[in-house]
Structures are given as structure tokens and as C-alpha cells.
Amino acid sequence: MWRLKLWRALLNIKKLRRRRRLSGGVPGDVKKGHFALEVKNSNGGDEVTTTRVVVPLRCLKNPQFVRLLDQAADEYGFRCQGTVTVCCRPADLERVLALC
Q1: Is 66 exposed, middle or buried (0-12, 13-18, 19+ CB in 10 A)?
Q2: Which of 55, 63, 74, 83 would give a disulfide with 36, using CB separation of 3.0 to 4.6 Å?
Q3: Which residues share a beta bridge with 51?
């Protein structure tokens, strides 16, 4: 089941990169084999901090990272027009990315 979600996420990211390349290009900090991830962190109040992270595609093989993308899909959907957005604490993301 998680493999199917992994392939869907990978295809969505590849389609997004192709669309961005045709429409003017991918930002310079996103190298081939990587994608941008926007991390939204709510501190319990009205304040929401946003951080942009460039992640290698190999992280899509990590089940914990795929689970994080599934949570993002439930909240935001995969019909984004730019950066993939996830809601989590930056420390949690760093822990998951360290396993990639």
C-alpha cells in the first residue's frame, strides 16, 4: 500500500517539476534529483512559521517520509501549484530526513 502512495507522490513531483520547467524553470536551489518542501509549523497560537527545505528524491523510499506526505495530502491535497507543503515541527522533519 505504501509503495503505491510512494509512486503517486513521485509521479506528482515529477509532473510538477516538468510543468515548472516548461513554465519558466525550477528555482536555482532545487537541483536535479531534488524537490522543494515547505514546512509549516504552528506553535499552538496564531503564529505560523514557514521554512523551505530542498529534499532529495531518494527520501521518497523512506516509509516515515511517505507517511508525512500522506498527512500533507490529507490536509492540503496533492494539487499544489508549487512547493509541496507539510505541517510538522522542523525537528521531526530533520529526524525523518536523517533516515534517508
Answers
A1: buried
A2: 83
A3: 39
**Listed residue (97, 12, 14, 18) closest to 61, CA to CA:** 97
- Predicted TM-score (pTM) of the model is 0.60
Beta-strand pair 34-42/84-87: parallel
Contact present, 33 and 57 (Cβ < 8 Å): yes
Q: pLDDT tens, 69-94?
A: 888 778 766 665 667 788 888 888 88
Residue with cell 514557514: 50
Question: Please, what is the Cα angle at 50 between 78 and 63, to 5 degrees?
Answer: 50
Residue 99 is given by DSSP the state T
